[in-house]
Please model this.
Amino acid sequence: MKMKHISYSLWTAAFLLFSSCATTKIHDSAQQARPSFEMHEIESMVDVEKWIAPGVLVIFDLDNTLFESKDTIAHANWFHDMLKRHPDEEKKILRMAWDAINVADYEPVEEITPNLIRSWQDRGIAVMALTSRDLVIQEATLRQVRQVGVDFSKTSPARKRESKYLHQGILFASSNYPKGYALQKYLAESHFQPTRIILIDDLKKNLKSVGEAMGAVGLYYPLVDNKRHLEWDEANAEQLWLEGN
Ligand SMILES: [Mg+2]
Model:
């Protein structure tokens, strides 16, 4: 199993805190321990098992980590591709994506993932989701998570089962973006202090956001990107954009 390991020194973490994350609370006490952040690349969700231990909090990204869309426009690849190609059209791209997401069906990125989540939950491990999806597609999101056979509400560490941004164990970063900021607020309110946060995400920027805000083991999961050349039709994606205009 190939594994890349990236260690961030305390000074590097401090530099990143000051330089790139305006919403992250800066530690103002010399005595206060700075959060440690490490990032590893995993090839399969099975690899997560080695970090599972009593007291940890496992947090799943949704798009291109837990699941992916069967429909092209609802797929996270389409949104990211269109935003790169047409950076001035963000609102229209979002509207088209949301319309598609509202009716799209999803499947797990790896077939084994829902079973793994259930097995960790059965062992009493706290497992929840953290998505940057907007609340306007909340109902569709809840349906799609159920569709792949996952129920995060059983083990998310919340005092209240539902709040403005938490629904069925899924925290919507939404206007609380970036993810590190959203999670920091949520955990402070839930009074849950995990021994370690394990975040699985296909985007390194999200892993860094959480890791730098709170300390975490960030598991970078680029499986969808790695199979993109086999499964993703760029010309068709662009054609669908043109047809939507
Ligand atoms: Mg994602």
Observations:
- The pocket of magnesium ion is lined by residues 61, 63-65, 76, 201-203 (CB under 6 Å).
- The two ends are 45 Å apart (CA to CA).
